[in-house]
Each structure stands twice: as C-alpha cells, then as structure tokens.
Backbone:
C-alpha cells in the first residue's frame, strides 16, 4: 500500500485513478510515499524517510525545494501544458481589462446604486473616464514562448496585433507551434523598449527574478501595459509602483496580489485564477496522478523537473532495481558488480542522466535480498535505491 498526501485540493478526476487496494490518499498522511501539490509552499517542509516523489499539479515548481529533493533522490514532477489553455484565456481577458478599464468601470457603475432614475444619465456623463484603446494593430511582446506563451502569441496574432516574442531557450516543439507572423526578438530590451503591451510567461528562478525592474522601466515605451500571470517575483513591486506613478506603465495586471499592490487604480489584481478552471484542474490532476503512479509502481519517469525521463517495459517474473546516483563514472559499474558477486543475473537495464543526477533501472531474474539492497545503498554517491517486486519492498 502506498500513502499519498495531498497538500491542496486535487481534482477527483485524478484521485479516482488511484485504486483503494493499492493507494491510501489523505491530506493528513504521515511520512507519505508521494505528495500531490498545487501552490502550497513546501520550501521549508521536512521530508519523511518514505518520500519518493512530489507531483506538482501545474507548471511552476518554485514552491518546491528542487535541489534538496534531488539530493535526497526524490523525483519532482510537473504537468507541462496541462493548464496552458486556462491561463491563456485569462491572459486574453487581462489584455482587454488592461486596455478598456473594464473592471474600474464596473466598480464605478456599481457605486451608483441608490441614485434611482438618475443612474442612466450619470452613466452617460461619467463613462468617458473609463475610455481605453483598442488592441488591434498594437504591438505586444510575449516573454517566454512555452506552453502558455505560444498560445497567447498565436491568439494575439488572430486579434490583429503585431506580436514579437522573446525566448532564448525555445523548444523545437514550441517553435513548430508558433505562428509564422510572430517576430523574433533577439533581446529582452527589444521587447521592453518597443511594445505597447507586454505579457510574461517564464518560470520564476534566479535568472528571471525581478526581471521587471527600474533599469527595464527606464527603457520602456511610455504607457506600456504589463500582464503578469506567471509569478509575482518576476516584478520588483517598488519599481513597478514608481513606473505607474510617472506614467511609464499605464496598467499592471497581476495574478499575484501583494499588500503593496492593492488599492491602486492602475493595478488589476486577480487572485491567482490563471489555472482555476475545471478543465485545467482535471488535466493537471490526471497527469500528475498518472506520473506518480507509474513511478511508484514501475519506476518510470516522465515529466520530471529534476530527474531524466526513463521508461523500460517491465519484464515478467523479474525484480526491478532503481537507483539514483551522482552523475560520475563507475556508479552503474559498482551496482552491477554487487549483483554479479551475488550471482544475480541482469535481464534488462537502462541508464539516463540529467544534469548532475543519473538514474538507473535494472530488471534482474529472481529476488533481490536485503543484503544486496543494503550494499547498493552504501555505495558512495548513491542517493536512492528502490526494489520493486510485485509491490515496492523498500
Ligand atoms: N497563474 C497561473 O495560475 C499559472 C501560472 N503559470 C506560470 O507560467 C509559467 C510558464 O508556464 P508554461 O508556459 O506552462 O511553462 P513552459 O515551461 O512551457 O514555458 C516557459 C518558457 O519560458 C522560457 N524561458 C525560461 N527562461 C526564460 C528567460 N529568461 N527569458 C525568456 N524565456 C525564458 C522557456 O524556454 C520556456 O519556453 C510557469 O512557470 C508558472 O510560473 C503557469 C500555469 C498557471
Ligand atoms: O494550481 C493552481 O491553481 C496554480 C497553477 C500555477 O500557478 C501553475 O501551474 O504554475
């Protein structure tokens, strides 16, 4: 039986894939085998000795201590693209909101309650304060052309905008999916200095933290509108507030409200709703659960952010040994030497590595004793060993 802990509400569509015979799912599980999480902050969390995997039902993994997980041999998954359409639709809404002062106008209209028959007249008199430009023909910069950025860029083309995209690490898949009308920016500054609208779709990390700062606002086209449904930390709030004050930025839409951003007429604060659609929540949960299940049951890795993808068909009657180790010479050799010394025959084997971590699947004939398990675990540089028979032993 595997124990799965949920840290946020995870769609039933995903959880129902975990059969009750094999998985116990609870938000109170102690020392779980795996954790399913959305946005809960896990950065300071202590991990139990059983923890093998964390699956983020979503894209951003900045709430998970990836390096610490890698060090402990814990595989971290996310669900690439599963909520991209939900976010894209809200970005398009944000684009219109940033231009047409829709929500400010709605709040104002609501404030007329109690004015009786005067309301229609007051509306016509007051509406000019909420005027805003059309987006057709305007230039939009899309920073980050991954699952969300490509969809946003393509839809902006359909809306008649001139679209310029910046992503020095764009994947071949994303490039294939991008409209040929999208102009390629060769620098971030090209976006910052020429666009009427800027939307950002990059992960938050050391390289992107604070990418919207006073140096960038200094070169920005006056009156730019900025949409940030990625992460609050991409923007230096103080510098943004100054840029809004002096008119450099006409409107800032963020999915990440913070105290200092509230109550400003030029800031639209959305309560992190980018992926809050039944469709996105289901897609993410199904993908996250399937990935965790495959890993716990078979050691198969797909869509991990810290481990390599690795998949090998299970050989009937075999025992599967999984190891994670430092990506240095002779790690696999030491494992196979232990097997040879114990007269264990290898039926199949697969090794992959990603950055500084190596991952190894070995199917052997017959059983693996606890002594063999312990000898492998004691090899210097081994971060994790698991033995899977019909169900996981260790
Ligand atoms: N508001 C919400 O509810 C949601 C927010 N997000 C945020 O959106 C971000 C993007 O999501 P996806 O498009 O699904 O991820 P993705 O991984 O498909 O795309 C990210 C893209 O950013 C690019 N990139 C990385 N560093 C860059 C840099 N310095 N400059 C330009 N491009 C850079 C990558 O090459 C990649 O193409 C997530 O990391 C997350 O923070 C994602 C889903 C929901
Ligand atoms: O689960 C959510 O609602 C947040 C989604 C998100 O921010 C992400 O996928 O990065």
Residues:
């Amino acid at each position: 039986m595997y124990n799965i802990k949920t840290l946020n509400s995870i769609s039933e569509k995903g959880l129902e894939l975990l059969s009750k015979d094999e998985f116990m799912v609870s938000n109170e599980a102690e020392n779980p085998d795996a954790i399913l999480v959305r946005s809960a902050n896990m950065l300071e969390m202590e991990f139990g000795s059983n923890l093998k995997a964390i699956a983020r039902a979503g894209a951003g993994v900045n709430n998970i201590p990836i390096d610490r997980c890698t060090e402990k041999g814990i595989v971290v998954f996310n669900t690439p693209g599963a909520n991209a359409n939900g976010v894209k639709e809200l970005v398009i809404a944000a684009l219109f909101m940033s231009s047409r002062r829709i929500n400010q106008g709605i709040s104002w209209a609501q404030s007329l309650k109690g004015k009786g028959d005067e309301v229609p007249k007051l509306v016509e008199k007051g509406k000019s304060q909420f005027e805003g430009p059309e987006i057709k023909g305007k230039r939009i910069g899309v920073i980050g052309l991954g699952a969300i950025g490509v969809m946003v860029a393509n839809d902006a083309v359909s809306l008649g905008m001139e679209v310029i995209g910046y992503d020095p690490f764009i994947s071949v898949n994303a490039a294939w999916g991008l409209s040929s009308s999208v102009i390629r920016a060769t620098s971030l500054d090209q976006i910052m200095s020429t666009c009427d609208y800027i939307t950002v779709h990059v992960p938050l990390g050391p390289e992107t933290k604070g990418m919207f700062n006073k140096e960038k606002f200094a070169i920005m086209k006056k009156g730019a509108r900025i949409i940030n449904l990625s992460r609050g930390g991409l923007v230096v709030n103080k510098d943004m507030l100054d840029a809004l004050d002096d008119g450099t930025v006409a409107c800032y839409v963020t999915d990440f409200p913070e105290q200092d951003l509230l109550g400003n007429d030029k800031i639209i604060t959305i309560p992190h709703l980018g992926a809050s659609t039944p469709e996105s929540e289901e897609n993410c949960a199904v993908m996250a659960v399937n990935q965790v299940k495959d890993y716990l049951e078979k050691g198969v890795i797909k869509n991990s952010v810290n481990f390599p993808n690795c998949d090998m068909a299970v050989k009937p009657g075999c025992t599967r040994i999984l190891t994670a180790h430092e990506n240095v010479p002779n790690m696999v050799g030491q494992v196979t030497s232990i097997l040879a010394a114990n007269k264990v025959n290898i039926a199949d084997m697969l090794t992959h590595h990603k950055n500084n971590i190596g991952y190894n699947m070995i199917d052997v004939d017959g059983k693996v004793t606890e002594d063999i398990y312990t000898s492998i675990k004691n090899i210097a540089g081994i971060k994790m060993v698991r033995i899977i028979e019909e169900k996981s032993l260790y």
In short: The chain has three domains: 1-83+277-307, 84-112+130-269, 310-394. Residues 58-60, 80, 83-84, 87, 143-149, 166-167, 169-170, 174, 201-204, 207-208, 229-231, 255, 272, 274-275 surround NAI (ligand 1) (CB under 6 Å).
